[in-house]
Write a structure and sequence with these properties.
With 345 residues, this protein is of the alpha+beta class. The chain has 14 helices and twelve strands. It has one domain: Beta-lactamase (3-Layer(aba) Sandwich).
Length: 345
């Protein structure tokens, strides 16, 4: 399997790992890594091109959380400010909400608002109104954690809209990705739609398995109606569901983490926000103040179907793995092992 792109001297084994993964999965694949601020891996394979945009799923969450952190850094609000001060309707259903709760998956507003479909999430105003009418999963806020899998983006995005005035996607483009030259989008511009690769393997049966059993919180946190027709359609790609429907290149997601390591983004991205046994994921998780995970040596976030983007501060390493083929995380882990072996030398 041909793998295109470049690796720095001493990093050629990563190309071999990418080739093995691509041979097994097909479709499109891209991997980028930075080591101590220097690009060392920039590879793409299969149907991918250098500028291909992939659906990120939840790997976009720390980028979305950073938009709200930028307002904190600029003094427009504080982590311990009451949400009631700018979003009283939400505080009415979950009294005592603080900004930090919205960012750290501890707000207790996990459930997808009625009618619980993915397509409805594209209606920003309806979703925001639904969140303010949905009974909390736990109360008071901050007493438990559970991934706000599909509501996180609206929970951090509505404060941005109310305080700044721009839509979330516009703020992201104007204040974060544009200035830093990062090819990351929540709401893909019309001119860039042709660069988005189709997601494959997203069958109804696969999606139902991901949602979990009836009556579980995981199922309540995951909408109905997610399939290839929705995700590969222009409405989803151009819409704004910041918890999951980011579109990015591997180069850009790795670049985001590299900027964080270099001090060019808010330090809170890597700071603990809340921790405990996650009521949605069913395992212990430490959530950061940007909505990502702090897992041993890594700060980052995975995405449904195998996406992954993270930083390992101890090694000065930032990297991203993006694929168009839904599957397990074993593929990213295989590439990660090759990257870490090179970084440790």
């Amino acid at each position: 399997m041909t793998v295109e792109g470049e690796t720095a001297p001493g990093w050629a084994s990563v190309r071999d790992a990418v080739a093995r993964v691509e041979e097994d999965q097909g479709g499109a694949l891209a991997v980028t890594a930075f080591h101590r601020g220097r690009p060392v891996v920039d590879l793409w394979a299969g149907t991918a091109r250098p500028d291909t945009l992939f659906h990120t799923w939840s790997a976009i969450k720390p980028v979305a959380g950073t938009c709200l952190l930028l307002l904190v850094e600029r003094g427009r609000l504080r982590l311990d400010d009451r949400v009631a001060d700018f979003w009283p309707e939400l505080d009415a259903v979950q009294p005592g909400l603080l900004v930090r709760h919205l960012l750290s998956h501890s707000a207790g507003l996990v459930r997808v608002p009625a009618p619980g479909t993915a397509a409805t999430l594209l209606d920003w105003d309806r979703t925001v109104a639904g969140l303010a009418g949905e009974p909390p999963t736990w109360t008071p806020p901050g007493t438990a954690v559970g991934e706000h899998a599909y509501t996180f983006g609206h929970l951090v995005g509505e404060p941005v809209r109310r305080i700044d005035g721009r839509t979330f996607g516009r703020f992201l483009a104007d204040e974060l990705c544009g200035p830093l030259g990062l090819d990351i989008h929540i709401g893909v511009p019309e001119a860039d739609l042709s660069r988005v690769v189709d997601t494959t393997g997203l069958t109804a049966a696969w999606w139902e398995e991901q949602r979990g059993s009836g009556g579980s919180l995981r199922r309540d946190a995951t909408p109905e109606g997610v399939d290839s027709g929705l995700v590969n359609g222009p409405g989803w790609r151009r819409g704004e569901v910041p918890a999951v429907n980011g579109h990015a290149s591997a180069r850009a997601l790795a670049g985001f983490s590299a900027r964080f390591l270099g001090g060019g983004l808010p330090a809170a991205i890597g700071q603990p926000g809340a921790a405990g046994v996650d009521l949605v994921l069913g395992r212990r998780v430490q959530w950061s103040l940007a909505g990502g995970q702090i897992d041993a040596a890594d700060v980052g976030m995975g995405g449904l179907g195998g996406q992954w983007a993270c930083a390992r501060p101890a090694l000065g390493l930032a990297w991203a793995f993006l694929t168009s083929v839904m599957g397990t995380s074993e593929r990213a882990e295989a590439v990660e092992r090759a990257i870490l072996e090179c970084a440790d030398v």
